[in-house]
Amino acid sequence: MGSIGPQKSGRVARAGVFISRLGTGLHPPKGCGDSGRTDRYGPQAGEGVPNPCVQRRFIIAAHNKYRIIENDYVRDILDQPRALEATLRGLSVPESLGLIRERIERGELRRVVLTGMGSSFYALHPLHSLLTSYGFTTVLLETSELVYYFPRLLDSQTLLIAVSQSGRSAEIVRLLDENGRRAPIIGVTNTDDSPLALQADGVLLTRAGEEFSVSCKTYVTALLALRELGSLLSGVQQVSFPGKACPEPAEGRESTPRALNHGSKQTRSELAQAAPTVRSYLNSWRDHVVELAACLEEVRHLFLVGRGGSLAAVGTGALTIKESTHRHAEGMSSAAFRHGPFEMLSEETFVLVFEGDGKTRALNIRLLENIRRKGGRAELLGKGAELSSLRIPEVPESTLPILEILPVQMVTLALAAQAGREAGRFTLGSKVTTIE
């Protein structure tokens, strides 16, 4: 295990550290935007805001005080491009999926229940939206709630999609027992000899390899597998659920689902771009960590907010920060943040706003603006981010959730570097939760 400090260079580091604010006696402005850049999302002159940021220029100082401890958690993060490539290359369609599709078309399966725990649960958010948009009746439930409070959903009219990287967590084992094979199960797991893999009707196996502690490469590969599954279940000829009309087959075509050897060619092509895009971002991981460590100085309360598919990274990100750095973070929808938590804005509160997709991007940016106008600290995560560490390229919606988690992983390393501690090492828990 080595110790890697920030790389030195002759240029001024974009570390986001505000030594002084030029031309004013005010406190440093909220957020950590680029040197010499006006605040694109903050208040503008003439708006009557007491903290004008049109002169948002700072002296940026290079800092060598952050010590990044490179351990197996860091190596797992850097291994994500390989894991994504291996998973996409090795994904095969379960033989049972054809039979499940037939049961859906005959109306025998009337709902889809998506379930998991922790990051496996949050990873289901994009699939939930996707399947609902295609007319499926979908229910998203933590496995712990499903088995005790919604057991009536475990019947022959339900298709279960269960995600667990280990395939043997306490709740998943309980689910398999309670279900008793009444509802068909499609499992997504990283462990081929696990109870989930052995007892599910069909399995999509990720190939992340062994993981040290906090979920990172198992999470992104699960996202990839779930997007492929969504493509398989969302074929053009797919019909089934009440209220969804069956499209008539074109002349000369059979009324059958799309070929089940893979999902759509477009989805496969988009997913193939995930690994190189992730690799490109991670090439500058040390710079990202130093920039974020400086930006997050004196932060005690961290909120991650977003909408739609971004809720996957919002939930997983907050969970990852807590378990990898022992720092408190809370994930919620951007709308929910306005319903109470907005009152927590202060010098010690930092809000990471996920830009998200086009449907609600404007609403998320408006929240960022409102936070800054109230004197709060906030930054945008997305293609329009001011900080390079929070900026991700514009990618198809199918791969956006994979990219969105990367800056949060850098946040975990940054918070650990601030404290001079090792990120991602469990002290009270374990990799697999085996107790309910």
Contiguous helical run count: 16
Residue ranges: pLDDT <50 for 5 or more in a row?
1-30, 34-40, 42-63, 236-261
Give the class-level CATH name of the largest domain. Alpha Beta
Helix coverage percent of residues?
A: 25-40%
CATH superfamily of the largest domain: Glucose-6-phosphate isomerase like protein, domain 1
Topology as H/E string? EEEEHHHEHHEHEHEHEHHHHEHEHEHEH
How are the strands of the largest sheet arranged?
A: 6-5-7-8-9
Radius of gyration: 23 Å
Shape by Cα distribution: globular
User: Can you tell me the number of structural domains?
Assistant: 2
Task: Look up the CATH topology of the largest domain.
Answer: Rossmann fold
CATH architecture of the largest domain: 3-Layer(aba) Sandwich
- Largest sheet geometry: 5 strands, parallel
> Distance between the terminal alpha carbons, to the nearest Å?
33 Å
Mean pLDDT: 83
Count of beta strands: 13
Structural class: alpha/beta
The fraction of residues assigned to DSSP E strands is 5-15%
Structural key phrases:
single chain, 436 residues, alpha/beta, Rossmann fold, 2 domains, five-stranded parallel β-sheet, four-stranded parallel β-sheet, 16 helices, 13 strands, globular
